[in-house]
Amino acid sequence: MKELIPQIKKMWEEHKDEVDKITEQIISPQSDDTKIMLKFLRKEFIPNKVLIFKSDEDTEIDELTGFTKNLKSLEGKATAYVCKNYQCNLPTTNALKMIKLLNSENKLE
């Protein structure tokens, strides 16, 4: 993975302005609740969605994006941060609420 960091960083820098619509971060190790969130996400078509995974200990993704530094899991559970135009809703550990936030037309306008 570490050998890919320069390539990922370059791609992020080149395209980060195109990713200003909807970004979602799921914060948690690979756990059952993460798998549930992914299952819900895979059922939905959400254009311009970017999914970022990180654990609370992950610093590499923070170096790439910068805005993920203060995003932490809630009570050790998979936690979704749904963001739009570089602003995030309050985090949720509920997969249905995550989908509602992603589909909401009125969030963070």
Question: How would you characterize the overall build of this protein?
Answer:
The chain has a single domain, classed as 3-Layer(aba) Sandwich (Glutaredoxin). The model has no long low-confidence stretch (mean pLDDT 76). By secondary structure, it is an alpha+beta fold. The radius of gyration is 14 Å and the shape is globular. The protein has a 4-stranded mixed sheet with strand order 2-1-3-4, covered by helices on one side. A hairpin with a 2-residue loop joins strand 3 and strand 4 (87-88). It has 4 helices and 4 strands; from the N terminus they run αβαβαββα.
Summarize the structure.
This protein has 109 residues and is α+β, with helices and mostly antiparallel strands. It has helices at residues 5-15, 32-43, 60-65, 95-103, and strands at residues 22-27, 49-54, 79-84, 87-88.
**CATH-derived architecture:** 3-Layer(aba) Sandwich
What is the CA-based Rg, rounded? 14 Å
Strand content: 15-25%
- Uncertain stretches: none
Q: List the total number of helices.
A: 4
Task: Tell me the CATH topology.
Answer: Glutaredoxin
How many extended strands? Answer: 4
H/E order of the elements?
HEHEHEEH
> How helix-rich are the residues, as a percent range?
25-40%
Numbering strands along the chain, what is their spatial order in the largest sheet? 2-1-3-4
Largest sheet: 4 strands, mixed
